[in-house]
UniProtKB/TrEMBL annotation:
It comes from the Bacteria. The keyword Cell division does not apply. This is NADH:ubiquinone reductase (non-electrogenic). InterPro entries: FAD/NAD-bd_sf, FAD/NAD-binding_dom, NDH-2, NDH2-like_C. It comes from Ignavibacterium album (strain DSM 19864 / JCM 16511 / NBRC 101810 / Mat9-16). Residues 344-403 form the External alternative NADH-ubiquinone oxidoreductase-like C-terminal domain. Residues 4-320 form the FAD/NAD(P)-binding domain. The keyword Membrane applies. Keywords: FAD, Flavoprotein, Membrane, NAD, Oxidoreductase, Transit peptide, Transmembrane, Transmembrane helix. Belongs to the NADH dehydrogenase family. The chain crosses the membrane at residues 364-384.
Length: 411
């Protein structure tokens, strides 16, 4: 009988594993609670109306339609029974010989879950559309507002968290509010809008070289973003954000701070780190169950030097490939090699022709880093059609400075 491999999650890790197990003797089922593979690194561009959802998401089924041994299932796994080799859905279950768990992460509100309603985070297409509508709606409300104080509140945008996502969002919102969309509104001027980036540490982009963080901060400030360092959020309300330094009145607050693993992982009953990620062995399997692997953002993988791998796409992709090879070659647990991560570099964009990048010891900023960022993102996008469309959108935006997808379609 053919061995059954279940893969939960068709993000970077799960999809890579599935593709590397295609056309083998295994019977593979790839399960995802959404019907699309999402290119999260460009989500902020959907949230800021530069790209459409379909530019960065592809139906999973269409990506694997040529692979006869891979079945795709749209459903949410609610628990894993590791002893009986079963994954449970709400009203059915599936058995496995091997299991690859690649369920990614959600944002963490550090125990203040009530803030989620007021300050949405950015992980899914739905999140991006919620944020897009919030931004456009705030501008619309400001356009018809006669009370100056209230108008200021609508025109103040606060991003919490100075990691790559926060920086990218702050830069893109500053471009919208101070340069591009503003032209279409008659009731206020670019200088009436304010964009705050709040960071609890003493610098933004703390995973980058100090000089690059400094450069990113300077670029943002030149674009009109007020960067608040050592600022800890103490409360978020309908009226704005309270930090340990001040109160910022705002109707549009976006959360880009902290990650929390999926609650599904609890059902594995194994040791996790503070963010709920499963602490995996050197072959990415879990202790006591060498047939169950955890990869990508769901896994806490410690390198030999004690360094814990970051939650980035390259880690998920490389672990997906590694685990597929281990399974394909049916390597017994005691003979399995250790996973080794090859760091290909990190980058973050700040705005048009502004980015920072660290590639193999090389530290880049400005136009060169931005070109490198653009090429890498186009290259890693899945599907020729998406690459072509995103490139055209970027060229269009570069020339016209106009965002194309500014529709409000929610209630
Ligand atoms: C806004 C944003 C920007 C980012 N920018 C960058 C960047 O520039 N560079 C970079 O390297 N990384 C970036 N990242 C991080 C990168 O996207 C992640 O590290 C990567 O996606 C992790 O891959 P994964 O396969 O572990 O999980 P994901 O890609 O998150 O995929 C998880 C999949 O599992 C599915 N799933 C979850 N739970 C269940 C369940 N219970 N049942 C069924 N399916 C389930 C989800 O629907 C999803 O499709 C960014 C992330 C975000 C959110």
């Amino acid at each position: 009988m053919k061995k059954k491999i279940l893969i939960i999650g068709a993000g970077f890790g799960g999809l890579t594993a599935a593709k590397n197990l295609a056309d083998t003797e295994f019977e593979i089922t790839l399960i995802d609670k959404t019907n699309h593979h999402l290119f999260q690194p460009l989500l902020y561009q959907v949230a800021t109306a530069a790209l459409s959802p379909s530019d960065i998401a592809v139906p999973i089924r269409s990506l694997l339609s040529d692979n006869k041994n891979i079945k795709v299932i749209l459903d949410e796994v609610i628990s894993i029974d590791k002893n009986n080799h079963i994954v449970n859905f709400k009203d059915s279950q599936l058995e496995f010989d091997y299991l690859i768990v690649a369920v990614g992460a959600r944002h963490s509100y550090f125990g203040k879950n009530e803030w989620e309603q007021l300050a949405p985070g950015l992980k899914t297409l739905t999140d991006a559309l919620v944020i897009r509508e919030k931004i456009i709606e705030a501008l619309e409300l400001a356009e018809k507002e006669t009370n100056h104080e209230l108008m200021k509140k609508y025109l103040t945008f606060v991003i919490v968290g100075g990691g790559p996502t926060g920086v990218e969002l702050a830069g893109a919102i500053a471009e919208i509010a101070k340069e591009t969309m503003i032209k279409d509104y008659k009731n206020f001027r670019p200088e009436d809008t304010k964009v705050f980036l709040i960071e609890a540490m003493d610098r933004i982009l703390s995973s980058f070289d100090k000089k690059l963080s400094e450069q990113a901060k300077e670029d943002l400030m030149n674009m009109g973003v007020e960067v608040k360092l050592n600022a800890k959020v103490e409360n978020i309300s309908q009226d704005g954000v309270h930090t340990n330094q001040e109160f910022i009145p705002s109707k549009t607050i976006i959360w880009a701070a902290g990650n929390q693993a999926s609650p599904l992982l609890k059902s594995l009953n194994v040791e996790t780190d503070r963010a709920g990620r499963v602490i995996v062995k050197k072959d990415c399997s879990i202790p006591g169950n060498p047939e169950i692997f955890l990869i990508g953002d769901a896994a806490h993988f410690e390198e030999e030097n004690g360094n814990v791998l970051p939650g980035v796409a390259q880690v998920a992709i490389q672990q997906g490939k590694f685990v597929a090879e281990v399974i394909k070659n049916q390597i017994p647990p005691e003979r399995r090699p250790s996973f080794r991560y090859k760091d290909k570099g990190t980058m973050a964009t700040i705005g048009k022709a502004k980015a920072v990048a660290e590639i193999k010891g090389l530290k880049l900023s400005g136009v060169i880093a931005w070109l490198a960022w653009s090429i890498v993102h186009i290259f890693f996008l899945i599907g020729f059609r998406n690459r072509f469309r995103v490139m055209i959108e970027w060229i269009w935006y570069y020339i016209t400075k106009r965002h194309g997808t500014r529709l409000i379609v929610g209630k």
